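Tutorial sheet, problem 5. The three components below are modelled jointly, 806 residues in total.
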Amino acid sequence: MMELVCPAGTPAALRAAVEAGAHAVYCGFADETNARNFPGLNFSRPELAEGVAFAHRHGAKVLVAINTFPQAGRQALWHRAVADAEAAGADAVILADLGLVAHTAEQHPGLRRHLSVQAAAANPDIINFYAEAFGVKRVVLPRVLTVAEITAINREIDAETEVFVFGGLCVMAEGRCSLSSYATGRSPNMNGVCSPPSHVVYAEEGDTLAARLGGFTIQKSARGAPAPYPTLCKGCFVSEGTTGYVFEDPASLDASDLIPALARAGVTALKIEGRQRSRAYVKEVVRSFRAAVEAVAAGRPVPAGQLARLSEGQAATTGAYAKTWR
Amino acid sequence: MQITVGPNQFFWDAASWRDFYARLADEAPVDRVVLGELVCSKRLPFYQAEIPGAVERLQAAGKAVAMTSLALITLKRERTLTAELAATGLEVEVNDLTALAHLPPGAAFSVGPLVNVYNEGTLGWLAARGARRICLPPELPPEPLALLAAQSPVPVEVWGWGRLPLAISARCYHARLHDRAKDSCQFVCDVDPDGRAVDTLDGQRFLAVNGVQTLSAACASAARALPRLREAGIAALRLSPQAEGFVAVCRLFRDLADGRIDAAEFDARARPLAPGGAFCDGFLTGAAGVAWSGA
Amino acid sequence: MFGHAPEIPVFPRPLALGLRLGPAEPLGLPLTLIARRLIARHPSLISRLGEHAAARFAIDPTDLPLCLLLHPHPTRTRITVHRTAPEADARIAGPLAALLGLVHGVYDGDALFFSRDLVIEGDTAAALALRNAIDDAELDLGAEIAALAGPFRPALDPLIALAQRTTGVALTRADDARIPGEGLA
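Model answer (structure tokens):
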């Protein structure tokens, strides 16, 4: 069966994910060492140790994301996060920074190393480089690849691959995007936040609600109409008289129909995005995807109705997995 | 303070490309030139034949030359291209770590601004692997920048001029804006030699797209930050090519670095040459990247 | 359930009108007591607020003629009840059922927000911190209220269940998938 890797922004979400059938849960410490450094989220050291114990009792793994890029002069914070994840009994750490991967391979050789999507390793050459130089066992593939390309990559590499199947969708090569820091000074790479809520301002203007990020208008919607979060790359802009979603529609990823194809492509693990979502969401999505991977493992089709319900009313896309997306 | 000319980010026809590098060789007071295709491998065949001549002319004019890797390497042909680059014997500027995998130990290479060098650990590892020079990512704030410059065993460069490279994607925005699939883009990005403006719904100038790349609308300028950068031990400023007036920009920076003009005069004379018509230097002051210290 | 407007029940109008008749302020005392009791048992409610721990939150059930003002504090949390929206750092507004559903893990905050069933104003980061802290605490307001009643609890439990059925408001935690005995492991 394909491994289902599920998000946990809080200990409650971790328990909800494990109880709903997650094979593995990924989470991070409550600081800028992880790429979902949102207010009120993430784990203290004791919370992580308790979470790992809980997951292990139920046969699930815990992967700790330490996937921002350490800041010069403050590397100790990231080094300590790796050491503390190992001490808490984490099954693996998910890393993005070249220097941090090298440090972990050298100082914590017994700790399993996964390469984060933030490292943007998008071809066999770079994946084999990370595997050979640093003993990286698994790579989370960037969301820029088609299923055919993923198949080709798996034929040429000596590491496991993990791909995103549900949730928020980055259109840019992740870990290589400075749009957020250009508008707000806060970036995914350095601060673990993209389009941070602290820089979002909503303004009611007549019959419309304008959402601004760092003073830039990202969206305008009619009063009462659905209002997607003003993530920069999903905003509505104007280019030479053309108005629209220049980069990406405010849609979320749903590759559930592609699970059989991804299994044939040799993918080891399926990842669900959403450490910022509630435990209610996590429980619902994990339960559905667990049923889906079990069905696929048993040679049955993906139970369509069940998964479609999760993105009902909201645009869903298979993103870069289909070549036409590009 | 040295001046490096970064790889051209845009798609120009072969004649414009050739003329640009010929003028650079003959007229621009710069020390290093990085050329080659950074953004989209589909563009390369259009001007590939011009590259050897440009390299020769630049070297004959006493300028150091390096060849950039692509910013995002995914396709088989792009991997082959990267391997060939490593075999040319020219210094390779790594802008996707994939290029490292193709470089034999001891081969000359430098690290470009699109590689995530945020800390001592990464910088030290790359220097130990043989990097001869490192251009830091544009978004790096002033404190880490100074810290890395102070500790680096190799020369450190920062973004000095031009629309900032903010993101790279598998999706082509030029094709999307023209309702075309990426594979049948018909090379529409050639109509915007400095990128295509993307404004907000309220008419604020914000970003620019260039094929699969997203840039700032404003032109970054390190002119006002120069004294601090010099003090921090930054070895070179990187100027990014633009379609018009680039030799003039190079001369202005040379004059500024050599003390013949001050930052105020630089700003006044360079502003008409800035793509997008506005400056930003927020990344160099620790603010949002779009901020301009001269406002 | 997610990504589209859930069918959120609106508080029955006759009951809402009833609330308009009496003075609102006295409600602040029992609510303050419940909040302090919750925080004493779930200290992470405060620690998860981080730098937003001193923020004032206006909780505005849009189908009720009143608005709560929450001043969080490790031991001296205060809730005051107002007829008109009080000044606050962040305002979280929505039907009572949506607000209670968030607390009880019935709804997802992002989904409610996307569908405009939930409106956040002011300090968005503070409001998010509060939402995430509450989501993690796995609160059960019905049980807390009943616990306050002490010996009257056996009589109250069926009443809460009845109220939940008739109003559609989630008054207790919805965690059917929980494994018995695992509690707060």
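Marking note: Confidence is low (pLDDT under 50) at residues 1-5, 176-185 of chain C. Full credit if you identified this.
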